[in-house]
Amino acid sequence: MTGRADTDPVLVRVDRDRCIGSGMCALSAPDSLALGADGLAAPLAGYADGGAELTDGLSEAVDYCPVEALSLHSARGGYRIAPAE
Ligand code: SF4
Fold first, then answer.
1. In ligand 1, which atom is closest to the CA atom of 23?
2. Where is the signal peptide (predicted)?
3. CA of 13 to the centre of ligand 1 (A)
4. Beta bridge partners of 70
């Protein structure tokens, strides 16, 4: 886990080969993630494209995904924010 980058918008990536559709992330971060029609998690709005605010709920979703399918990336720099490499 790294520190929050409050001024840097983040992108959420979902590893669709790992996601098991538990829905935990959509509960932790309902403004950032939802289950799609295929039953797998998908980033919402700016989190898929362009970047949006890093929230506590989103950090929690990444930390608690049971299969480590979520990652956060800097929309500007492209580097991975969480989880730590
Ligand atoms: S918590 Fe992880 S496994 Fe569950 S729906 Fe979200 S990304 Fe998929």
1. 5
2. none
3. 11
4. 14
Q: Which of 13, 25, 27 to mutate to test the pocket of ligand 1 (most atoms within 8 A of CB)?
A: 25
The pLDDT score that the predictor gives to residue 1 is 44
Radius of gyration of the chain (CA): 11
Residues 6, 15, 8: CA angle, nearest 5 degrees: 15
Name which residue sits closest to atom 2 of ligand 1, judged by CA.
Answer: 65
> Which amino acid makes up residue 41?
A
For the ranges 19-23, 33-37, 65-69, 76-80, the lowest mean pLDDT is seen at 76-80
* Record: fold of 10-78: Alpha-Beta Plaits (3.30.70)
CA of 24 to the centre of ligand 1 (A): 6
- What was the pLDDT predicted at 47? 98
Residue spans per domain, the chain: 10-78
